[in-house]
Signal recognition particle receptor subunit beta (Tetraparma gracilis), 271 residues
Amino acid sequence: MAALSIAPLLPFLPPPVVSLIKFVDGVVPFPEFSLHLILTLLALLLLSRLPSLLLSRPSPSSYAPGSAAVPAASRTTVLLLGPPSSGKTLLLHSLLSPSPAPPTLTTMSPTTRALPFGNGALITDHPGHPRLSSSVPRHLAACRLLIFTLPSNLPSALPAAARILYDALASPPFRGVEAALVLCTFAHAPLAKTPARLRTALNVELERLRKTDLTLQETGDGAPEREAVRIGGRAMDVERDAGVEVTFVAGDLKGDGKGKVEAWIRGKLAE
Ligand SMILES: Nc1nc2c(ncn2[C@@H]2O[C@H](COP(=O)(O)OP(=O)(O)O)[C@@H](O)[C@H]2O)c(=O)[nH]1
Ligand SMILES: [Mg+2]
C-alpha cells in the first residue's frame, strides 16, 4: 500500500532505487517497510551530495574564473600588466618611493603594495610571463584602474603584448574596470614609436587574436570562461572597443613617465 502511495514518485527516482523498492515490495509482507526504506535512501543520497553542494557555492572572498564576482564599486586596485621587461616593476617602485632602486631581477610572482596616495588604493605588479597568465583574471576582479606598459622601442614585443591585453579584455572581470592607461615606456629610446603608431600596430595584433577567438568560440573549442570581444563587422580598435576609456600616453620611466602615471591615477581616483 505504502509502495503504491509513492508510485507517482517512481519516475523521478534513480533506477537502482526503483528496482530495490520493487524487489522489497515483492519479498516483504509489510508495505510500510518500503516507504521507510525509500526515505532512508533519499536522506543518505542527500547527505552524500551535501559536501559538494556546499563547496561549489562561491564564497564572497574568492573569485571563480568566469564571473565578475567583485562589484566595480568595491574595487581598489591599480593593476600593472604588460609584456616582460616593459617597465612594470620599475613603475611600481617609482610610484612607491621618490628614488627607487632599479629592478634587477625578473619578477616571478605578483606583488601588491599600498600606494602612498589615493586613500588606501593598492597597486599590483603582475608579471608578464605566460606561465603566470592564469592568475590575471583573479587580479582583474579586484582592479579599478588598469595600466598596461608597452615598450615603444621593441616591435618584436607587440604579439606578446597583444596576447596579454586581449586575454584581459576577453576576461569577464574586465567589465568592472573603470579606465585603462596604455603607457608607452622607453619613449626616449632611439627608434621609439609614437603612441599613435603603437596603437595602430597593437590593433592589428588584437584583431588577429579576436578573429582566432571568434572561430574557436563558434566551433565550441573556446575556453568557457572567455568571451570573444564582439564588435560587429569592423576591425578592432582598442580605444573604441575595450568597453572602458583607454588612453595611450608616451612616458619614459627614466624621465617623465612616473609623473604622468601618478597624475592619471590621482585624477581617476578623485573622480
Ligand atoms: N630607459 C628606460 N628604461 C626602462 C624603462 N622601463 C623599464 N626600464 C628598464 O628596463 C628593465 C626592465 O624593467 P622592469 O621594470 O623590470 O620590467 P618588467 O618585466 O615589465 O617588470 C629595467 O632595467 C628597467 O630599469 C623606460 O621607460 N626607460
Ligand atoms: Mg617585473
